[in-house]
Design brief:
CATH class of the largest domain: Alpha Beta
Strand order of the largest sheet: 3-2-1-4-5-6-7
CATH topology of the largest domain: Rossmann fold
Distance between the termini: 10 Å
Strand content: 15-25%
Shape: globular
Radius of gyration: 21 Å
Structural class: alpha/beta
Order of helices and strands: EHEHEHHEHEHHEEHEHEEHEHEHEHHH
CATH architecture of the largest domain: 3-Layer(aba) Sandwich
Number of strands: 13
Helix content: 25-40%
Number of helices: 15
Largest sheet: 7 strands, parallel
Amino acid sequence: MPLIWAAISAHGFGHAAQVVPVLNALSRLVPNLRVLLRTMVPASFFEHRLVVPWELSAVQQDIGCIQDGPLAIGVDATWREHHRFHLTWEDRIQTEVEAMRAARPNVILADTPYLAVAAGAQAALPTVALVSFTWDLILSKYAAPPGIADQTLLQSIRQAYAKAGLALRITPAPKMDIFERLIDIRPIAEPAASAREQLASILRLAPGERTVLVGFGGIPLASLPFADLEPLTGYRFLFDGPIPTNSHRFISTKSLPFSFKTLLASVDIILTKPGYGTLVEAVALGTPLVYVRRYNFADEQPLVDYLHRHGRGAELSGEDFACGRWEPAIRSALNLPAATVPPAAIGAEDAASHLVRFF
């Protein structure tokens, strides 16, 4: 039976959110397709999202970034963990090669672990990188601490990526020059159907009251300025983390009978960081977005540019976010006129049309 090996970075859920629509689209072209998910992303993420039969093999594929919440990157810790990861590089490669040869997949798809790219090439299997950024681009923004041979490590990562037979660069994305064969594909988004009326009924919204989804992706946000925001009238904040038991302004998303994707399609505005999945879905849905930037992540500027070109967005400074001064940015985003029509978010179909030739 046809099998695809999908190696997925577990730095948040953004990479998995890109891969799932591609696998679903591919399953419509390849009868009896099976998927081996090689990732540390929990199985719960793929349940009710991935329609093709799949098996999870929980093996670390890369480091990503070491973070204290979704907005703060521990630069020194990130470099040190990459250094440790590469100390056992040859053993990791051998483990992946042996597992790939045992599984005998038709193709290796990597979003975006360079380990899988290098191992796939060594196993003499077709290897495709699905990329909105690469980890060398991320690391190159950070100064390494003493004792870390940063240029040697970056070169090792680039050499691994360069072994991909094909790279599919997802719109929007930064410039990449390490792949010999690179094809641009359209944005990947798979918005859910709206449940706006049901949500309004459950929340018992007052006339004119707006819903704000506060979601920063797969890396949890530990706390919010609840006390500063509680007096703010006219808004109800849906938060995917713990909230005070006596809050009237905040509602836990876990208390609602909707998935996060359905909430994305059902609220009036989204408050987040510029991450691929949430931002591109907001643009596809036409939902205004307020974003808090990190200013040191390589794909952030292309995403922000894409939002302002095709969607409605307003920046909230880190200081104003921490202090609860959210309302001006929210009002600004809500009052923005409709933007230009975005590119069709059918990058998953684009990717599947390139992958199907391996079956």
